[in-house]
């Protein structure tokens, strides 16, 4: 049993689509994110993102679109584990999977289909 | 290029999906952490039985520190840094509390120029208690009916044990939350620190003589036996605990009765965990703990009923305040996100 509400990881592809109005799936990302924000406000979920992936928005992040998002801080040990992951050669995907496993994240908001092959609840559908 | 429905790759079914544990290398230090924490627990229980429970602030801080080292082995340097900052805040909080509590009976000094000393409440709390108890002095009545010199009854053990949990349970909860969820630890600490701060403020502005003092020094109520709060524990064989407790009392403030932090701390832990407890009967059982604590405090002559009620009121106020603040923070952050994403609808005139 976890004391915290379930965490939803906003994966890099989702963050890029959400914050770029010209992105192909921006509207889908916005619709899904607004639903998540409603759940966040009711304390039904916690929104999290990997610190490395949040870096472009880091200064002033709490004042913008990603204000509800908490940071999963990546340590050297997480990077080391991600580099050793043979099943997933892409470092960013491996890092996200590592953080999901270590921080017990079950739901991932992503547009990257590679996440759908893992035992994660991926969204948007 | 368009893809027909037949050509679209079908997502793997739930049984075909790869569990994360199968691809992410295991955290080799996790079993080490768990082993160390169990070893700590075993040593702690051995110490409790044969050496006594450490309850003075320094011993508690050291024991919590050792537990946290066990729980944080192999965590990132950043996590250790956060833990260090948290620990400093924790120490400052207790130091401020001890200093303020100890000096509260001497009033407040304004830059060393003049000192404001608030009048000692001797009769007022007794009078309120008499109103609440239909004209009786509850401390005297309870001791008259239940206390028998030289005999330790089962309720003495229950009352004494409940009384002594004050020095341990809130800190154990703090340490456990620290290890399990930093977010929940921060929520708990905000409420706890607010309670300590408000308690200290009241110790300064409302120095209150406890029932045993009103009985012994002012003879305004019947005879009260004291100290008897350790007898039940003595009966269980926890002498080391009691000795430490006596040492700790010598630095205390005898007129810091209002509010009762014993009553507050006995409520803060059940109240914090209440949202996670599902069965209503279990919630009811958990909430009897602060009631047993207040009854014990009154029985031992340590506090008036009104002290306990004020302590509970402070606890509820602290939870209400921080609940509102946290809700407001969530609302503000959600509002900022919506303000960027939701299009502003044109106002038709």
From TrEMBL, chain A:
Name of the protein in its database record: Unannotated protein
From TrEMBL, chain B:
Gene Ontology, cellular component aspect: membrane
Membrane topology type: Multi-pass membrane protein
Entry keyword Membrane: yes
Subcellular location: Membrane
One Pfam family hit: PAP2_3
Presence of the UniProt keyword Methyltransferase in the record: no
InterPro entries, sorted: Aur1/Ipt1, IPC_Synthase-Related, PAP2/HPO_sf
Residue stretches making up the Inositolphosphotransferase Aur1/Ipt1 domain: 140-320
Major place of residence: membrane
Coiled-coil region(s): none
Transmembrane segments: 28-48, 60-77, 163-180, 192-213, 254-274, 281-299, 305-323
Keywords: Membrane, Transmembrane, Transmembrane helix
Protein name, entry field: Unannotated protein
Lineage: unclassified sequences, metagenomes, ecological metagenomes
């Amino acid at each position: 049993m976890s004391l915290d509400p379930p965490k939803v990881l906003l994966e890099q592809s989702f963050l890029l689509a959400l914050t770029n109005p010209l992105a192909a799936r921006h509207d889908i990302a916005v619709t899904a994110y607004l639903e998540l924000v409603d759940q966040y406000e009711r304390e039904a979920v916690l929104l999290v993102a990997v610190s490395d992936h949040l870096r472009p928005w880091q200064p002033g992040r709490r004042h913008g679109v990603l204000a509800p998002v908490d940071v999963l801080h990546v340590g050297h040990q997480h990077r080391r584990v991600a580099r050793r992951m043979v099943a997933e050669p892409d470092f960013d995907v491996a890092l996200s999977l590592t953080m999901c496993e270590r921080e017990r994240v079950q739901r991932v908001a992503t547009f990257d289909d590679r996440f759908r092959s893992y035992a994660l609840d991926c969204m948007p559908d | 290029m368009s893809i027909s429905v037949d050509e679209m790759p079908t997502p793997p079914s739930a049984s075909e999906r790869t569990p994360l544990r199968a691809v992410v290398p295991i955290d080799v230090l996790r079993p080490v952490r768990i082993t160390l924490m169990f070893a700590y627990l075993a040593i702690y229980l051995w110490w409790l039985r044969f050496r006594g429970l450490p309850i003075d602030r320094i011993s508690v801080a050291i024991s919590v520190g050792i537990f946290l080292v066990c729980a944080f082995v192999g965590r990132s340097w950043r996590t250790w840094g956060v833990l260090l900052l948290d620990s400093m805040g924790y120490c400052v909080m207790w130091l401020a509390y001890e200093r303020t509590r100890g000096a509260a009976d001497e009033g407040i000094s304004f830059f060393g120029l003049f000192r404001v000393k608030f009048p000692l409440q001797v009769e007022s709390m007794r009078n309120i208690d008499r109103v609440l108890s239909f004209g009786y002095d509850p401390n005297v009545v309870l001791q008259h009916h239940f206390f028998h010199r030289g005999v330790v009854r089962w309720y003495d053990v229950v009352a004494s044990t409940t009384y002594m949990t004050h020095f341990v349970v809130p800190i154990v909860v703090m340490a456990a939350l620290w290890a399990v969820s930093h977010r929940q630890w921060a929520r708990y600490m905000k409420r706890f620190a607010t309670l300590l701060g408000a308690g200290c403020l009241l110790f300064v502005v409302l120095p209150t003589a406890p029932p045993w003092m009103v009985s012994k020094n002012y003879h305004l109520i019947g005879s009260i036996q004291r100290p008897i709060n350790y007898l039940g524990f003595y009966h269980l064989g926890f002498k080391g605990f009691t000795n430490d407790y006596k040492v700790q009392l010598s630095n205390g403030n005898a007129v810091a009765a209002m509010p009762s932090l014993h009553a507050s701390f006995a409520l803060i832990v059940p109240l914090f965990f209440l949202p996670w407890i599902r069965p209503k009967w279990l919630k009811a059982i958990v909430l009897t703990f602060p009631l047993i604590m207040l009854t014990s405090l009154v029985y031992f002559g340590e506090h008036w009923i009104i002290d306990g009620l004020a302590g509970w009121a402070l606890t509820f106020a602290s939870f209400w305040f921080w609940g509102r603040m946290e809700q407001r923070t969530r609302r503000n952050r959600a509002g900022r996100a919506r303000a960027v994403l939701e299009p502003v609808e044109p106002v038709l005139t």
